[in-house]
């Protein structure tokens, strides 16, 4: 078989293994020698089709494949509506905006679009950047769209009680589940000093009923700007846009739930 044929077979194996494969997986499923499997994965890595997790050494789809998959599903103008709304919010507020999705493992968030604002951030993420879903507002907004058992698996302590948990993030799966219930009730998530030190954010999501894809819409800001009422006001702006886009797209969540000012202010009381 040609290299292209084998690369296509690797992509099929990826879909069967939750979006991550090792050299051993490729050997087992393709029947290639270990040296050939390793060389094939390295070629796909160098070509920008795959990237490698430094901790597990497993391979997963790179941003190029995620973009292709997104565009293949993105026959609707949803992404363009989100981009236009986010560009306007970034220009108006000076904060940095992101559009992101969960990766195939449903444990990490991958940035698809970034719109940089005028307020400097300590950490600026670019398209392709990954964040742990349990420890970011974007991740929790996306996880809140999943069933409880699937969402709980995003927390590292679900599989290892001694796993390192980031400061200020939910300490265990039960705490994560409680936060996700809050997100489902009010429609948005927030974070301060979690996966990105010195950075705060608010996020909400839209589900495209035509493609089934869930996109997160986020504004990030320097954590030093936070003061009573700040996150509430920012969330109100963001949710207003997301709810309108969601209703227009036919997202059942936003058609049945319109967050009120009281909802946002009550949620904001916990971070003042």
Properties at a glance:
Beta-Lactamase; 272 residues; two-stranded antiparallel sheet; 6-stranded antiparallel beta sheet; alpha+beta; 11 helices; 8 strands; Arc Repressor Mutant, subunit A; disordered C terminus
Radius of gyration: 19 Å
Briefly note the structural class of the backbone.
alpha+beta
What is the CATH H-level superfamily of the largest domain?
Answer: GAF domain
Element-by-element helix/strand order: HHHEEHHEEEHHHEEEHHH
Domain unit count: 2
| Unreliable stretches covering 5 or more consecutive residues | 259-272
Overall number of strands: 8
In the CATH hierarchy, the third-tier topology of the largest domain is known as Beta-Lactamase
**Beta-strand content:** 15-25%
Could you give the distance between the termini?
A: 61 Å
In this structure, how is the largest beta sheet organized? 6 strands, antiparallel
What's the pLDDT, averaged over the residues?
A: 87
Oligomer: single chain
Word description of this protein:
InterPro entries: GAF-like_dom_sf, HTH_MetabolicPath_Reg, Tscrpt_reg_IclR_C, Tscrpt_reg_IclR_N, WH-like_DNA-bd_sf, WH_DNA-bd_sf. Keywords: DNA-binding, Transcription, Transcription regulation. Residues 1-63 form the HTH iclR-type domain. Residues 64-251 form the IclR-ED domain. The chain is of the alpha+beta class and 272 residues long. The protein has two domains: 3-69, Winged helix-like DNA-binding domain superfamily/Winged helix DNA-binding domain (Arc Repressor Mutant, subunit A); 76-270, GAF domain (Beta-Lactamase), CATH 3.30.450.40. 44% of the residues lie in helices and 17% in strands. The longest helix has 20 residues, at 230-249. The termini are far apart.
């Amino acid at each position: 078989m040609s290299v292209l044929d084998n690369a296509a077979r690797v992509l099929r194996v990826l879909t069967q293994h939750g979006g991550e494969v090792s050299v051993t997986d490729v050997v087992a499923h393709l029947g290639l020698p270990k040296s050939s499997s390793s060389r094939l994965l390295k070629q796909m890595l160098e070509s920008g089709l795959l990237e490698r997790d430094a901790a597990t050494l497993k391979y997963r789809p790179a941003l190029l494949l995620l973009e292709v998959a997104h565009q293949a599903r993105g026959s609707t103008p949803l992404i363009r509506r989100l981009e236009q709304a986010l560009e306007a919010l970034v220009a108006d507020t000076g904060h940095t905006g992101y559009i992101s999705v969960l990766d195939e493992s449903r444990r990490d968030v991958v940035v698809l679009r970034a719109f940089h604002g005028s307020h400097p951030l300590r950490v600026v993420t670019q398209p392709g950047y990954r964040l742990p879903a349990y420890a970011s507002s974007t991740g929790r907004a996306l996880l809140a769209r999943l069933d409880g058992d699937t969402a709980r698996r995003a927390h590292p302590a679900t599989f290892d009680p001694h796993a390192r948990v980031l400061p200020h993030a939910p300490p265990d799966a039960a705490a994560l589940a409680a936060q996700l219930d809050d997100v489902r009730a009010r429609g948005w998530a927030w974070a301060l000093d979690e996966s990105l030190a010195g950075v705060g954010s608010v996020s909400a999501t839209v589900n495209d009923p035509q493609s089934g894809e869930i996109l997160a819409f986020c504004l990030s800001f320097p954590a030093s700007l936070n003061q009573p009422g700040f996150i509430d006001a920012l969330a109100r702006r963001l949710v207003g846009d997301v709810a309108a886009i969601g209703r227009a797209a036919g997202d059942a969540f936003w058609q049945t739930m319109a967050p009120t000012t009281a909802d946002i202010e009550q949620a904001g009381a916990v971070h003042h």
